[in-house]
UniProtKB/TrEMBL annotation:
Domain (DUF2828): residue spans on this chain: 13-416
Organism per entry: Fistulina hepatica ATCC 64428
Stretches assigned to the DUF7788 domain: 419-655
Protein name, as recorded: Uncharacterized protein
InterPro entries xrefs: DUF2828 (IPR058580), DUF7788 (IPR056690), UCP015417_vWA (IPR011205), vWFA_dom_sf (IPR036465)
PANTHER family: OS06G0652100 PROTEIN (PTHR31373), TROVE DOMAIN-CONTAINING PROTEIN (PTHR31373:SF27)
Top-level taxon of origin: Eukaryota
Pfam family name, one: DUF7788
Length: 668
C-alpha cells in the first residue's frame, strides 16, 4: 500500500518532465497553487488546508493580498476571501480590518504599511453585491486572455441601470450574510474617517506658520478611497448612504450637521430627503477637505489643476498610469521633476509596484521609440510622430526612476547572501512586449532575475545563469539603464532546452572544483524563475571529477520521478565528496497555468514559491523570522543550522509567521 501511495501523485509536465500532482501537505498545496486556482479547485485546496491548520490557512489567504509581506495578488485574494466568506463568515468579517491597518513594518519609514488598501473593502462589497464574490462551482478556464474576453458593449441606459442596482441592493440586504458584510465595511470607513476628521480639526487649529507636515502624514488614506456618492462603487452598493448615516449618528465634535437633521433620531435615517442631505454633507464637508489635505492627485486632475500637483507625493500606481497625462498637461513642471529625480534632488514612488510592470513598460516604450525612429523618413505626419516619441521617452524615464525606487526600498530589508538566479527565457515563457504577465511569464522572470542580481552580495551579484543544456553565467552591467539589461537577458541563448541538473553538474560543481573553492565560499542558493515546464528528466551519473554524463529516462512518471530523485541524490553525494553542500533550490513558479509541484513537503534543501511580487525576496534577506508558538501545536519553525536542512513546509511556515499576520484571528 505504501508503494501504491508513493506513486499515486506522480505526473508529468507539458514537456514530459517528472513532477508531483501534490506535495503530501494540504497547506503547502494551497500555498503554491491558490494564486492560480478558482472555482471547485480553489474550494478544495482551501478546505483541505483549513482542516490541516486553520490559523495558517487564514494567514495564507492574507499573504495573497499583502503588498509588503506577500504576493500582492488582489484578484487571487478576492477569490480566496470569497471562499472564507462562504465557509467562515464571522472570521472573514472580523479580519477585514487587517486589510487596512498599518501592520507591516517598513524600515526607514515613519509608519507601517497595510496588507491591502481601503479600496479592497469596496471591491469585496461590490463583488458580493453582484454575486461574484463566492467561488463558483463551475471550473473557469485558466487559458482565457484579456483579449479573448473583450466584447463590444451596447450603450448604457443609466436610468435603467440605476433601477436595477437599487432592486439588487434591496434584495441583497435582506440576506443576513450580505448585510453583515455591508455594515462591517461601512463601520470601518466611518472609524477611519472619524479619526481623520479629528486630526484635521487639530491641524486646522495650529497657529499660522506652524509646520503641519508631520500631522498630515498621520492621516490615513480612508478619505481617498472612501466611496464618492453616485460614483463608481456607490452606484453598485449605495454604501455612501450607510457611511453618511453612521457618521451623523456618531456626531464628530468638530462638525455641525444641517439643522433639518437635528430632529431625526434613531439608528437609521429612513427619509429620502434626509439621506440626500447627509450624502451631500458627507461629500462636501468630509471627503473634499480631507482629500485636499492629503493632496489626492486624482482630485486635481479631474479639476484640471495640473499645476497644483506635487509630483513627489504621487503614489506609485498613479504615477505609473498617468505619466503620459502629466507630460501632456504640465510638460515643463513634469520634465523638471524628472530631472530632479535623476539628480536625486527629488523622490519618486515605486516601491509598491510589481517589478514585471516596470520591465514590460520599459520594453514597450523602447519598442515605441525604435518604431518611431524607423518610421521617421516615411511618416505622413512627422510632428505627430515626434510627439509620440517624446511621450514614450518620458514614460521610459518614469519607469527607469521607479525601478530604482523599487530597488532602494528592497535594499533597506537587507541583501541576498550567496544567491544566484537561473532565468528561463525559453519559448514557453512568451514575449516580453506583448500581452500580460499571466500569459507571458517571461516578464516576471526577467524582472525578478535582475532584482536578484542587484540585491545579491558580491561576488555573486551582477549576473545570472542561463537555463539550457549548456548553462552559462552571464555578467550584467547594472550601471546601464534597465532597458539594456532586459535586452541582454532576453537575448540570452537558451539552446531550446531547460535542463536544471546541468546547472549543478555542468557549471557550479566543476567550477568550484577547478578553482578549489572553499566550502564557505560556495554558492548557497539557486533561485529558478520559470514556468516550471522543464524538459524530460535525464538520469545522470556524477563521478568524483564532477563531469556530467546524462542518460535519457523513460517517460513513465514513476521512473521519471525516481530518475529525478536519484539524480538529485547523486548530485548531493558528488558535492559532499568534494566537501560542499549542494545549493538550496528555490523553485519559483511564474505560470498561472501550472498546478504541478517539483518536490514533496519533506524534501530538504528545496523551497517552492509562486507569484510575481518582489516582496517575497525579502524572505531570504536579513534575520530569520522565528516560528510562532500560537500558530498551531506543531507549526513552529525549528531553528536550522543552515538552509540546506530547510524543507518546503519549513519555509512556508517561516513566511506565514511574519508578525504582520499576528492580528488575524479565528472566530468560527
Amino acid at each position: 500500500m505504501d508503494a501504491l501511495k508513493s506513486i499515486s501523485n506522480r505526473t508529468t509536465t507539458w514537456n514530459d518532465a517528472s513532477a508531483y500532482s501534490e506535495t503530501a501537505s494540504s497547506l503547502l498545496n494551497a500555498f503554491c497553487n491558490v494564486w492560480n486556482s478558482s472555482g471547485r479547485e480553489l474550494s478544495e485546496l482551501l478546505s483541505s488546508a483549513w482542516m490541516e491548520d486553520p490559523n495558517l490557512t487564514l494567514r495564507l489567504i492574507w499573504h495573497l493580498r499583502s503588498i509588503h509581506d506577500g504576493t500582492s495578488d488582489k484578484d487571487a485574494f478576492y477569490r480566496a476571501f470569497g471562499w472564507l466568506f462562504q465557509k467562515h463568515l464571522r472570521t472573514a468579517i472580523t479580519n477585514l480590518r487587517m486589510l487596512v491597518e498599518p501592520v507591516c513594518k517598513r524600515p526607514g519609514l515613519g509608519r507601517g504599511g497595510s496588507h491591502g488598501y481601503w479600496k479592497d473593502l469596496l471591491n469585496i462589497l461590490s463583488l458580493a453585491t453582484i454575486d461574484a464574490l463566492e467561488p463558483s462551482l463551475r471550473e473557469q478556464s485558466k487559458h482565457l486572455t484579456r483579449k479573448g474576453r473583450s466584447r463590444s458593449r451596447p450603450p448604457i441606459n443609466h436610468h435603467i441601470s440605476s433601477q436595477i442596482n437599487h432592486e439588487r441592493i434591496v434584495q441583497q440586504l435582506a440576506d443576513t450574510r450580505y448585510r453583515a458584510l455591508y455594515i462591517a465595511i461601512a463601520r470601518l470607513f466611518v472609524a477611519g474617517l472619524s479619526r481623520d476628521v479629528c486630526k484635521m480639526a487639530a491641524i486646522d487649529a495650529l497657529p499660522a506658520g506652524t509646520n503641519r507636515g508631520k500631522l498630515i502624514q498621520e492621516l490615513s488614506l480612508a478619505s481617498k478611497w472612501a466611496p464618492t456618492p453616485s460614483l463608481s462603487h456607490d452606484r453598485v452598493t449605495n454604501i455612501s448612504t450607510a457611511i453618511s448615516a453612521l457618521l451623523y449618528h456618531l456626531k464628530p465634535a468638530s462638525y455641525s450637521f444641517p439643522s433639518m437633521l437635528t430632529a431625526v433620531e434613531g439608528p437609521l435615517i429612513e427619509s429620502r430627503e434626509a439621506a440626500l442631505v447627509l450624502r451631500s454633507f458627507y461629500r462636501r464637508w468630509v471627503l473634499t477637505p480631507l482629500r485636499r489635505l492629503i493632496d489626492v492627485p486624482e482630485r486635481l486632475m479631474s479639476a484640471n489643476q495640473w499645476a497644483d500637483i506635487v509630483y513627489s507625493r504621487v503614489p506609485s500606481l498613479c504615477m505609473h498610469s498617468n505619466s503620459e497625462h502629466f507630460f501632456q498637461h504640465d510638460p515643463d513642471r513634469f520634465q523638471q521633476y524628472l530631472i530632479d529625480v535623476e539628480k536625486r534632488k527629488s523622490n519618486i514612488s515605486g516601491a509598491t509596484l510589481l517589478p514585471h510592470q516596470l520591465v514590460m513598460e520599459v520594453s514597450q516604450q523602447h519598442n515605441t521609440i525604435q518604431e518611431t525612429h524607423l518610421s521617421q523618413k516615411k511618416a505622413r505626419y512627422p510632428a505627430l510622430l515626434e510627439v509620440r516619441k517624446c511621450i514614450a521617452e518620458t514614460r521610459l524615464r518614469v519607469a527607469e526612476a521607479q525601478w530604482k525606487a523599487l530597488v532602494t526600498s528592497l535594499r533597506v530589508s537587507g541583501s541576498l547572501d550567496s544567491t544566484i538566479a537561473v532565468c528561463d527565457v525559453s519559448g514557453s515563457m512568451g514575449c516580453i512586449q506583448q500581452g500580460d504577465a499571466d500569459d507571458n511569464p517571461i516578464a516576471p522572470a526577467v524582472s525578478l532575475s535582475i532584482l536578484t542580481a542587484t540585491l545579491a552580495k558580491s561576488p555573486f551579484d551582477g549576473g545570472f545563469i542561463t537555463f539550457s543544456a549548456d548553462p552559462r553565467f552571464v555578467r550584467l552591467d547594472l550601471s546601464q539603464p534597465l532597458g539594456y539589461t532586459i535586452k541582454k537577458i532576453v537575448d540570452a541563448d537558451w539552446g531550446m532546452n531547460t535542463d536544471l541538473n546541468a546547472v549543478f553538474t555542468r557549471l557550479l560543481l566543476p567550477l568550484a572544483v577547478r578553482h578549489r573553492l572553499r566550502p564557505e565560499d560556495m554558492i548557497r542558493r539557486v533561485v529558478v524563475f520559470s514556468d516550471m515546464q522543464f524538459d524530460e528528466c535525464a538520469a545522470s551519473s556524477v563521478p568524483s571529477n564532477g563531469a556530467y554524463k546524462p542518460t535519457v529516462a523513460k517517460r513513465d512518471p514513476s521512473i521519471l520521478r525516481d530518475a529525478w530523485c536519484a539524480n538529485y541524490d547523486a548530485v548531493v553525494s558528488a558535492y559532499r565528496e568534494h566537501g560542499y553542500e549542494v545549493p538550496q533550490i528555490v523553485f519559483w513558479n511564474l505560470s498561472r497555468h501550472v498546478s504541478t509541484f517539483e518536490a514533496q513537503e519533506s524534501r530538504k534543501g528545496v523551497v517552492m514559491l509562486s507569484g510575481f511580487s518582489a516582496s517575497m525576496l525579502k524572505a531570504f534577506m536579513g534575520e530569520e523570522v522565528p516560528g510562532k508558538d500560537d500558530i498551531s501545536d506543531d507549526s513552529a519553525v525549528t531553528s536550522r543550522e543552515s538552509e540546506y536542512e530547510l524543507t518546503p513546509v519549513d519555509f512556508m511556515k517561516k513566511v506565514l509567521s511574519q508578525p504582520s499576520f499576528d492580528g488575524l484571528v479565528i472566530v468560527d
